[in-house]
Design a protein that fits this description.
The complex is a heterodimer of chains A (about 375) and B (about 375). With about 375 residues, chain A is α/β, with parallel strands linked by helices. Chain A contains 14 helices and 13 strands. In chain A, strand 1 and strand 2 form a beta hairpin. The longest helix of chain A has about 30 residues. Classes of the chains: A alpha/beta (about 375), B mainly alpha (about 375). The interface between A and B is medium-sized, with 28 and 33 residues.
Chain lengths: ~375, ~375
């Protein structure tokens, strides 16, 4: 009897197990692929561009002809407010679980991006691997681009930032939303990939330097390479160097392995940034090849030339960051706080002036392993 | 009381202990560990584990001396009848409170992560009813469920740690012991709660088939959480850095959120992890609920604990629903962890007194 009673009590719980409250059919979701944030014309407002995926275009053979996305502009005071306003424009519910890219317009970035960042950290539904970039000009223009190789410009941009950054030195994926959070908490400067919209494509390369969450300047392609060397996030890429005609005039190295370590060292009262870069690569292109000399005799000289080239690039980027922008783009403050905690605790408020006085102690070692399929 | 086929095997002891320890707090542990002592939290997690190990062995030795009795009976041989009853009463209170707080922590996190619009009450009740269904069948069923769930939980945690290792940066752990060795121990009271659960040893000795082998399997049961917890705190700090770790509400979940699955075929590892975590929370809650109803039954000198499971249902629910916000839950659970620490610690004097008494020949087991 007691058993039957318990069973009877347990049956109604079945109704609770269906969890209807959070049920939402997949067709009711508006999957937001990209978000662009610009300054609105009226004061104190932001203009948020949501790029929403139209699922039919992404699936099957019939999808080929249809447009892949729908971009909607909203002017609001905050991001969640914009999301709420979006509900009035579209018959679906915005869903950020497949967010590919978050773009900031230049003008907005100059005023500071921290006011909107918090939402992306706090809201539980945002993917932490989302790429973040800053757009030269307006962010919505980058999302308006209609790429020929992808259905959505957001996917196209994030693909370049994500995948191609492993192959090229000038394209950097500096931070995802998750990575940004760490610098946001530490109040450290950030660097974001630069996106330039040109007609029906974008050009990605270079970077924007942020200080106190405000965009203060740009790094060009060469400088971005230098910044990446110091940060140690270079894996592969190419580097070319002009050499004397006997050495082949111009030689290009295909880098397949890099190791870079940045360590602070406190000498007396002076901070030294010790940077050791080791590069392994193959020769991929020689402009004046088929000469008398066998490559084997030239390798050492090439290595020297590459070492000098990398040194120049890195030092130039370092000086730009230290003297011109005054922005610590290498997460150096974080290293100092890890290695010299007491020193950091005492001096963190003067970090700006300390950073302007740090010195770079750079060692570069290049090892050429192979010369491709031609011996001379 | 002894029914041969329902007895727990030695490996089930290990599994029960590990399952009762690894629970809801997996989600918040890296924050709790680093909140007061920065990166020393990694060491503190390990140290708390070793302390837990010591007391687990003490409890095991103590309980083994009375192989036919649980903690609700044998203290009367050691400290006398009335104090033993008081001890039992507090044990009931403690296990009920812990059950309530586990239930609430679990439901709150689940609501924040997955079931945003589902009422909290519904999540809590669903969990409670599922738990009741399990524990009505007794400790051997709980052990069997744990046997099925624990490998999944351990697998998910190990997978999480392995996939996160790509972003691991040893430099983040650098200023370890920057203020010396001792300050690390300040975090111990906070971390203790994460290791509580092995009190189940107080209860299960009469149900084991080989009590003489209790100790090695107990040690193994605690070593599993020690290794996982220490690695979890270490890797989370190594990935995020100490400062961001202590600012995240559920750092372990954030760790899962930032994983890039090789090949990017699964974009959201955190959902998978959250589902496995539900299993961990479920086994922990079941074990504490079982302890609560079992001890309440024996407090009244009764044998059949099944009716008491239903009696406890509204009480545990009320305890769970009481805190008004997430910060009250945290305060509440830190107080309870002190109480738990006291219960665990009391095993040591009890063991000593019990040894002395037996030597005096006043009573025999």
């Amino acid at each position: 009897m007691a058993k039957k009673l318990i069973l009877l009590l347990l049956v109604p719980t079945l109704f609770l197990l269906t969890s209807c409250w959070d049920r939402r059919d997949i067709e009711d979701n508006a999957f937001v692929l990209g978000i662009g944030i610009d300054k609105a014309k009226t004061d104190d407002n932001i203009r948020v561009t949501f790029q929403i995926a139209l699922p039919p275009a992404f699936g099957g053979e019939n999808g080929g002809q249809q447009e892949g996305t729908w971009s909607i502009d909203i002017v609001a005071k905050d991001i969640y407010g914009a999301t709420a306003k979006l509900l009035g424009d579209i018959d679906r519910v915005p869903n950020f679980q497949h967010l590919q890219v978050l773009l900031f317009g230049e003008e907005f970035a100059r005023d500071g991006i921290d006011e909107v960042l918090d939402f992306f950290f706090r809201a539980p539904k945002v993917r932490y691997r989302t790429s973040v970039a800053v757009v030269e000009g307006e962010a919505y223009k980058a999302l308006e681009v209609k790429p020929k190789t992808a259905k959505a410009s957001a996917v196209y941009i994030s693909q370049i930032i994500n995948e191609n950054s492993g192959q090229s030195l000038a394209i950097a994926e500096f931070y995802t939303i998750g990575g940004l959070f760490q610098n946001y908490v530490r109040k450290s400067p950030i660097t974001l990939t630069k996106v330039v919209p040109i007609k029906d494509k974008v050009s990605i390369g270079g970077a924007g330097a942020f200080k106190d969450s405000k965009l203060v300047g740009w790094y060009d392609l060469e400088e971005t390479k230098g910044i990446r060397w110091i940060r140690g996030d270079v894996k592969s890429g190419e580097i070319g160097v002009d050499v004397s005609p006997e050495l082949g005039e111009r030689v290009v190295l295909d880098i397949f392995n890099t190791d870079s370590s940045l360590k602070p060292e406190l000498r007396g009262n002076r901070l030294i940034a010790k940077n050791k870069i080791t590069v392994e690569g193959d020769i991929i292109e020689i402009q004046k090849s088929f000469r008398e000399n066998e490559s084997s005799k030239l390798i050492q000289q090439w290595e020297k030339a590459f070492e000098k080239e990398i040194k120049d690039i890195v030092e130039h980027a370092f000086l730009k960051s230290r003297d011109e922008l005054g922005v610590d783009s290498f997460d150096f403050d974080r290293k100092v706080s890890n290695y010299y905690q007491n020193y950091w605790d005492q001096n963190k408020n003067d970090w700006d002036s300390i950073f302007r006085n740090i010195e770079l102690d750079l060692t570069v070692e290049v090892k050429i392993r192979r010369v491709g399929e031609v011996k001379y | 009381m002894k029914n041969n086929q329902d007895l727990l095997s030695s490996i089930q002891i290990t599994i029960l202990i590990s399952s009762s320890i690894i629970g809801v707090l997996v989600l918040t542990l890296p924050r709790i560990a680093t909140e007061t002592v920065r990166v020393d939290g990694v060491f503190a997690t390990f140290a708390s584990g070793i302390i837990a190990l010591f007391f687990a062995v003490v409890i095991a030795i103590l309980s083994r001396r009375y192989p036919n009795e649980t903690v609700m009976e044998y203290p009367k041989h050691i400290i006398g009848k009335i104090p033993a009853k008081i001890f039992g009463l507090f044990l009931v209170l403690y296990t009920v409170l812990v059950s309530g707080i586990i239930l609430r922590t679990f439901s709150d996190a689940l609501k924040a992560i997955i079931l945003e619009r589902t009422p909290l009450e519904v999540i809590m009740l669903t969990m409670l009813f599922t738990t009741i269904y399990l524990i009505l069948n007794g400790i051997s069923s709980i052990a069997k469920i744990c046997e099925g769930f624990l490998p999944l939980v351990v697998f998910a945690l190990v997978l999480l740690l392995m996939l996160s290792f790509r972003d691991f940066d040893i430099e983040e752990l650098r200023p370890m012991f920057a203020r010396g060795f001792l300050p690390a121990f300040k975090a111990l009271p906070n971390i203790t709660l994460a290791y509580l659960g092995f009190e189940i040893l107080y209860f299960i000795v009469p149900f084991t088939n080989k009590p003489q082998k209790l100790i090695p399997y107990t040690v193994l049961g605690i070593l599993i959480p020690i290794v996982i917890y220490t690695a979890l705190v270490g890797i989370t700090v190594g990935v995020f850095g100490e400062k961001p770790t202590k600012m995240l509400m559920y750092p372990t979940l954030n760790l899962a959120r930032q994983i890039a699955f090789p090949g990017a075929f699964a974009e959201r590892f955190d959902i998978f992890f959250a589902i496995i975590w539900i299993l961990a929370a479920f086994t922990t809650l079941s074990i504490f609920y079982y302890m609560a109803s079992f001890s309440l039954t024996h407090l009244f000198g009764l044998r059949n604990y099944r009716p008491f499971i239903l009696i406890l249902l509204p009480i545990i629910y009320l305890v769970g629903i009481l805190p008004q916000n997430i910060f009250q839950i945290e305060t509440f659970s830190s107080y309870i962890s002190y109480a738990g620490a006291i219960f665990v610690f009391l095993s040591l004097p009890m063991l000593l007194v019990s040894i002395v008494k037996r030597k005096g020949g006043k009573q025999s087991g």
